[in-house]
Design a protein that fits this description.
The chain has 2 domains: 5-124 and 290-311, NAD(P)-binding Rossmann-like Domain (Rossmann fold, 3-Layer(aba) Sandwich), CATH 3.40.50.720; 127-289 and 321-337, Dihydrodipicolinate Reductase, domain 2 (2-Layer Sandwich). The chain is built from 9 helices and 16 strands. The protein has helices spanning 16-25, 39-48, 58-62, 79-88, 103-116, 130-140, 166-182, 290-304, 312-330, and strands spanning 5-10, 29-30, 33-35, 53-55, 69-72, 92-96, 120-123, 147-157, 188-194, 204-210, 216-222, 224-236, 240-244, 252-261, 273-281, 336-337. The two termini are 33 Å apart.
């Protein structure tokens, strides 16, 4: 009989209860203890799952006897020190996005996890979404051709944060998908934004990422929008993909459209573009909760020793982009090179 994996959840506010629910639903996992500084949140979660112990002290939480792994779902400012304490205790660690507040903190956590021989994974949940996985398969199959550029919009009204701006809050989702599809980190990042509600905390921002081979990506994030928008367009040399996560059923649509310059012409007046308009279709995408797949992947990687899809290296690459974007903001949109991450 397979031994049960005991995973504790630290942070029972917005996202932590979802982690507890999903880990609890896995046959090979148990959630024996949860941790939060707010006793009311602990009482609420334990009313749903009476078998879970609750504690307000993080050190006590880490010393809970059967605990082998922890999932950290707290505000970003706490990610580094809480993950460091867990790794030092030899616990496999899942950190919600973004991984930490700086690239230096990420690199320290990566080195610590290697020394301790434990798993370090970051909760970039969208990489486990069936629609994103299907999109990656379509791109790998060559139907779309070479990626030319990606445009992503993640917009809604709130939720406003006081300690991080909209880029640190929303862009990690888009950036993780873009890096997964492109297959490499960007060479540089330019970021412009504005703070309309809280001075010094940008609530609308635009990122421009440059990749090798002339490829680029645009990311638009906002807390000041009347509609919830979760849309990404991938323009390839042969076809185009639109990924709409708000769409309940047809989340992916393939457009057989492209434009090509004519190879030969004698004069400027003869120059023409060739526009191709083919059929559009929506490929089948199975419906599964991405967070459940992420939790299952974390548990499986612990048991098998395999490298997670969203490992600490991937998480650090996202923070490197966010850090460069913050520098670009301070320099009024000047392009900034991305930091480098020591290989795992």
């Amino acid at each position: 009989m397979e031994t049960l994996l005991h995973i504790g959840v630290a942070g029972c506010g917005y996202w932590g209860p979802n982690l507890a629910r999903n880990f609890r639903s896995l046959e090979a996992c148990r959630v024996p203890v949860v941790c939060d500084t707010n006793p009311e949140r602990l009482r609420h979660l334990r009313s749903l799952y009476p078998e879970m112990a609750g504690c307000t002290d993080y050190a006590e939480f880490l010393n809970y006897e059967p605990l082998e792994a922890v999932a950290i779902a707290t505000p970003v400012r706490h990610h580094y020190w809480m993950a460091k304490a867990a790794l030092e205790k030899g616990k496999h660690t899942l950190i919600e996005k973004p991984m930490a507040s700086s690239l230096a903190e990420c690199q320290e956590l990566l080195a610590l996890a290697r020394r301790q021989g434990v798993m370090l994974m970051v909760g970039h949940t969208f990489l486990y979404a069936p629609a994103v996985r299907r999109m990656k398969e379509i791109l790998a199959g060559g139907e779309v051709g070479d990626i030319r550029y990606i445009c992503s919009r993640r917009l809604n009204l709130g939720l406003f944060q006081n300690d991080i701006n909209v880029t640190w809050d929303l862009a990690p989702h888009d950036l993780s998908i873009i890096l997964h599809l492109v297959g490499e980190p960007p060479q540089s990042v330019a970021c412009s934004g504005a703070a309309h509600v809280n001075p010094g905390v940008e609530d609308v921002a635009m990122l421009f990422l440059k990749f090798s081979g002339g490829r680029c990506a645009i990311v638009h994030n906002s807390w000041l929008e009347p509609r919830k928008v979760r849309e990404m367009t991938i323009v390839g040399s042969r076809k185009m993909i639109v990924y709409d996560d708000v769409e309940p059923h047809e989340k992916l649509k393939i457009y057989d459209k492209r434009v090509e310059p004519m190879p030969h012409y004698d004069t400027f007046a003869d120059f023409h573009y060739a526009y191709h308009y083919g059929e559009n279709y929506a490929p089948y995408v199975r419906q599964e909760e991405p967070l459940k797949l992420e939790c299952q992947h974390f548990a499986e990687c612990i048991r098998s020793g395999c490298q997670p899809l969203t490992d600490g290296q991937h998480g650090a690459e996202i923070v490197a982009i966010l850090e460069a974007a913050q520098t670009s903001l301070a320099r009024h949109g000047q392009a900034v090179p991305c930091g480098t991450i020591a290989p795992a």
